[in-house]
Amino acid sequence: MAFIQACNAACKSSTGPSNLVIPPGRFMVGKTIFKGPYSSNPVTVEIQETILANSNMSEFCGRACLLFQDVDGLTVLAGGIFDGQGQSTWLYSNYHSPDNCNSPLSISKFTSIKVQTVTNAVIWDINLVNSKGFHMTITSCSNFVVERLNITASENSLNPDEKHISRSDQVRVSNSIIRTGDCISIGESLSNDDSVRGIFVSNSSSTKTTNGVRIKTFHNSPQIQASNIIFEDITMNDVQNLIIIDQRNRSKDSIGVSSVKISDIHYRNKRGISISNVAITLNCSSTIPCEDIELADINIILSFNCLKKLLSFSSTCSLPIELSVPLETTKTPALTRAPNRWQPQKKNKNKNQGIATL
């Protein structure tokens, strides 16, 4: 409550820039909403030390601990830490909020920091630790920059998508390190049909993750599109699924087929070490095949541990797909793309270090 009172005093009493400074110390917070519009522009929130999310889930009726909503011109400067204190709640992942809450909450959907309907925003140098669910979500936002984001959680966390972006445009995430979960997920777009278009991922690396770059859709999904998506200059070390399109996600739990049209997808200059003998999986919809999938300058080698087990190495296309070049599956210890075929490649001894960096 003290945060809200301080913010209202600073942001609703001035038409110029305003600053809210959270000084050094440790502060426990429950559900806290910074809701505009504010007369001040821009609004700057500076977190200098540590904020602790209350470990008592009954304190939260909404889906977020800190919510920034309906603000034009927001800057969050950290250097400090937001600790979601998820350790006390991960064992109760089936928990739902009390009946008197307007928005029933399960822990897996809880978010440490949620930013909604915010324009012209910058979040810089923030450290998120051990969220109860998601660490950060960005929804219905525009012209948004996230720089030097650092996310960590212990191995027994719920591991949802650590940072989720949906219904937004002109969002840039860079110079960030994410050490747990599914790194960054992107959902429906800001357009009326919820299609996802215009995604560019470059100059990043992943180490010891389940997935490298993945496009997934669900059964019984609406007739929307995922298109104009580029993955470029990416290095992956000891990754299980380096390149994967999965339109049968959770197929055991659902009926029907995916109606999402996947097209104009580009994988360029990707290097990696696979811990799986399937290097590339393109598992497209049985009713709407993928189109215009480009694989260019792909160099994937099988990890030494897999080689010791004498595993064969392959790529799979389970359903009809239109590729930009002919694809010929070759069972070899390493694969690289030649102009018109897959051919063996010597193992690259140079290893890129780092953990899910952007």
TrEMBL record:
Keywords: Cell wall, Cell wall biogenesis/degradation, Glycosidase, Hydrolase, Secreted. It is found in: Secreted, Cell wall. GO terms for molecular function: polygalacturonase activity. Gene3D superfamilies: Single-stranded right-handed beta-helix, Pectin lyase-like. Residues 334-358 are annotated as: Disordered. Transmembrane segments: none annotated. InterPro entries: Glyco_hydro_28, Pectin_lyas_fold, Pectin_lyase_fold/virulence. One of its GO terms (biological process) is cell wall organization. The keyword Repeat does not apply. Belongs to the glycosyl hydrolase 28 family. This is Pectate lyase superfamily protein domain-containing protein.
